[in-house]
């Protein structure tokens, strides 16, 4: 049942409240709730009244806005902006209150038109759902735009753009709320269809003028800084004034004028900055070019070629310098440019990649195609210096630092397999000669190598340690074995047994003659090791690595001298006579000529023997006047001193190993893929070799041919660039 | 290494006190399996190294060599999986009987 209602009387009282609400006059709480219940009563009385109050309300808004329009006539420029803004702020908040007062009406009309979506937000989003009947708040906005914006749009836009230009020039800086508020009043349609286009146009024009001014007033360094400031300020301005939908457009207009459109000029200056490594300017330019699509391309190229140029020059200068000089120089280059990358380019991953590429090129650079790349060998030698006893007295922290330096350079070395060869050679020498500063330091280094190259790369190096550590136990067990069997050896004997696959040692050695009681030590140990301790193993003794400590009893002082087995064999002869001819020594010791000459010259150099030339040939006399500062000393051994031939041997051996590795890799890939085209095969092979060496395409092709010959794979008959695996 | 003891008898006689006496002697040796061929015919790797499977699983310690009555030798792991298919030696086709296992 509907309550009858006096519409005219109700409207008359509502009308007064509407006016107060719109003009933000204080409205009593009771009047406010009465009005809401009046609107409610009208809405439930009849649908005719719903339309009537809606239209009356709209009429009222129109006449109110038309009144404001009149108030604004005759006001121009800044004053218009100010006055317009004041009216707008008042009106928009009044309209928002009004909308909530008419909530029930809005809802009823939505319901009548088959929707119950309610009015959400002022003023932009209100216009989104155009199928829905406009709510009172929306009507207010629409009418504002139709009546006031329509009338003052030209003047408003001009004044606004002038204010924005002032802000850009930092003269007469406008109040941010005012500019933002006026723009907000435009509504989505006017903002997008009229204002934004003008804004972008003005932005472009302004920055074209600004560019010319900046180019004229600054040198390059000042210029890029000024440009950077302008762009930063514009970014800030966007936040301050414009709707979020315009931010990227305005910025783009600014950036393209200031940077993209003059990229050639910027790139041209870039070369100079890179050459002089001007970090601040580079950083500034980097920040500008980063904003341009593909803008860093030239800069990246300049950096790469600069690092290569400086680095290669350095490598040439380092020719024939010590490996410490080499490593220090490389570290300096690497530090210098990684600092540059960090400071100028903020660790940008693209620049870091370029840095790695360039350093790799420098480290693997060879002065000419005929000289081998020395990096692998040099780094291994440097590591040897670090880990060898008696080089320098570094603290643990220093040593760790220096090891990390080696690793930092090692990362870039292409010939990692060659490094491994040299490294294991030097490691073997250190371990056997007891010449390592500590096994812990050795292990630390190998751990670092393992992180980069994996288990397989370091497994043999690990085996070498294991052997050294196992030997302690082996020798103490050997002593108990001797006790149990009641065997007494005449010398204090110990053995170092090494796994033949892991150690890069020459198995062939010169024969020599030793006293039978010494020989008994070897055979006893052999028997113990091969039958009691192990089964199925055999031993090969390496006298050139075996060492003895001898006591010299014929001098004023008693000395203890450490010798190789060969040196020992010669010296023991002198227990029987004080002088021998070279020929006699050869006969007694049975040493090969090469080994004999080496051994005698080492004893002569140590001043233990004195060489005498005579017509019958050389003879060697024991030096009875021998003296030494230390009571314990070692005779330098030349047996494992490296010769140039040995280094060539390492290089040629590595060539063979690479061929075998590539063939095995190709077979492994083909076995899993069955069919593969040429380029994909190359790619996979290169990927799988990266931790050992970087194979040349020619070498891979050669290996493919070899495997085709050996019937491991064949060319696909239909497609020549495809291979089939033959099981 | 060959050791020679030729013509020791003609050496001059030792003096009463030795000028050089041996205090310590450390002899270095390489060990390898006592085999006729140093690669494993099944996995093609050196017998002194572990087989492929053990290298991948990082348990090289356990990968020992085994000899058959025919005197052919393989990684124990390799011949073990071979014996699943055939009970003959892969090289000489004689019946596989273990002669000894390396240690
Ligand atoms: Zn095997
Ligand atoms: Zn195995
Ligand atoms: Zn067999």
From TrEMBL, chain A:
<dbReference type="InterPro" id="IPR036390">
    <property type="entry name" value="WH_DNA-bd_sf"/>
</dbReference>
<dbReference type="InterPro" id="IPR016157">
    <property type="entry name" value="Cullin_CS"/>
</dbReference>
<dbReference type="GO" id="GO:0031625">
    <property type="term" value="F:ubiquitin protein ligase binding"/>
</dbReference>
<dbReference type="InterPro" id="IPR019559">
    <property type="entry name" value="Cullin_neddylation_domain"/>
</dbReference>
<comment type="pathway">
    <text>Protein modification; protein ubiquitination.</text>
</comment>
<dbReference type="GO" id="GO:0016567">
    <property type="term" value="P:protein ubiquitination"/>
</dbReference>
<protein>
    <recommendedName>
        <fullName>Cullin family profile domain-containing protein</fullName>
    </recommendedName>
</protein>
<dbReference type="InterPro" id="IPR016158">
    <property type="entry name" value="Cullin_homology"/>
</dbReference>
<dbReference type="GO" id="GO:0005634">
    <property type="term" value="C:nucleus"/>
</dbReference>
<dbReference type="InterPro" id="IPR001373">
    <property type="entry name" value="Cullin_N"/>
</dbReference>
<dbReference type="Pfam" id="PF00888">
    <property type="entry name" value="Cullin"/>
</dbReference>
<comment type="similarity">
    <text>Belongs to the cullin family.</text>
</comment>
<dbReference type="InterPro" id="IPR016159">
    <property type="entry name" value="Cullin_repeat-like_dom_sf"/>
</dbReference>
<dbReference type="InterPro" id="IPR045093">
    <property type="entry name" value="Cullin"/>
</dbReference>
<dbReference type="GO" id="GO:0031462">
    <property type="term" value="C:Cul2-RING ubiquitin ligase complex"/>
</dbReference>
<dbReference type="Pfam" id="PF10557">
    <property type="entry name" value="Cullin_Nedd8"/>
</dbReference>
<keyword id="KW-0832">Ubl conjugation</keyword>
<dbReference type="GO" id="GO:0019005">
    <property type="term" value="C:SCF ubiquitin ligase complex"/>
</dbReference>
<dbReference type="GO" id="GO:0030674">
    <property type="term" value="F:protein-macromolecule adaptor activity"/>
</dbReference>
<dbReference type="GO" id="GO:0031146">
    <property type="term" value="P:SCF-dependent proteasomal ubiquitin-dependent protein catabolic process"/>
</dbReference>
<dbReference type="InterPro" id="IPR059120">
    <property type="entry name" value="Cullin-like_AB"/>
</dbReference>
<feature type="domain" description="Cullin family profile">
    <location>
        <begin position="374"/>
        <end position="604"/>
    </location>
</feature>
TrEMBL record, chain B:
<dbReference type="GO" id="GO:0061663">
    <property type="term" value="F:NEDD8 ligase activity"/>
</dbReference>
<comment type="pathway">
    <text>Protein modification; protein ubiquitination.</text>
</comment>
<keyword id="KW-0863">Zinc-finger</keyword>
<dbReference type="GO" id="GO:0006511">
    <property type="term" value="P:ubiquitin-dependent protein catabolic process"/>
</dbReference>
<keyword id="KW-0808">Transferase</keyword>
<keyword id="KW-0539">Nucleus</keyword>
<keyword id="KW-0007">Acetylation</keyword>
<dbReference type="InterPro" id="IPR001841">
    <property type="entry name" value="Znf_RING"/>
</dbReference>
<comment type="subunit">
    <text>Catalytic component of multiple cullin-5-RING E3 ubiquitin-protein ligase complexes (ECS complexes, also named CRL5 complexes) composed of CUL5, Elongin BC (ELOB and ELOC), RNF7/RBX2 and a variable SOCS box domain-containing protein as substrate-specific recognition component. Also interacts (with lower preference) with CUL1, CUL2, CUL3, CUL4A and CUL4B; additional evidence is however required to confirm this result in vivo. Interacts with UBE2F. Interacts with CSNK2B, the interaction is not affected by phosphorylation by CK2.</text>
</comment>
<dbReference type="GO" id="GO:0008270">
    <property type="term" value="F:zinc ion binding"/>
</dbReference>
<comment type="similarity">
    <text>Belongs to the RING-box family.</text>
</comment>
<dbReference type="GO" id="GO:0061630">
    <property type="term" value="F:ubiquitin protein ligase activity"/>
</dbReference>
<keyword id="KW-0479">Metal-binding</keyword>
<dbReference type="Pfam" id="PF12678">
    <property type="entry name" value="zf-rbx1"/>
</dbReference>
<dbReference type="GO" id="GO:0005829">
    <property type="term" value="C:cytosol"/>
</dbReference>
<dbReference type="GO" id="GO:0031466">
    <property type="term" value="C:Cul5-RING ubiquitin ligase complex"/>
</dbReference>
<dbReference type="GO" id="GO:0035556">
    <property type="term" value="P:intracellular signal transduction"/>
</dbReference>
<dbReference type="GO" id="GO:0005634">
    <property type="term" value="C:nucleus"/>
</dbReference>
<dbReference type="GO" id="GO:0016567">
    <property type="term" value="P:protein ubiquitination"/>
</dbReference>
<keyword id="KW-0862">Zinc</keyword>
<dbReference type="InterPro" id="IPR051031">
    <property type="entry name" value="RING-box_E3_Ubiquitin_Ligase"/>
</dbReference>
<dbReference type="GO" id="GO:0043161">
    <property type="term" value="P:proteasome-mediated ubiquitin-dependent protein catabolic process"/>
</dbReference>
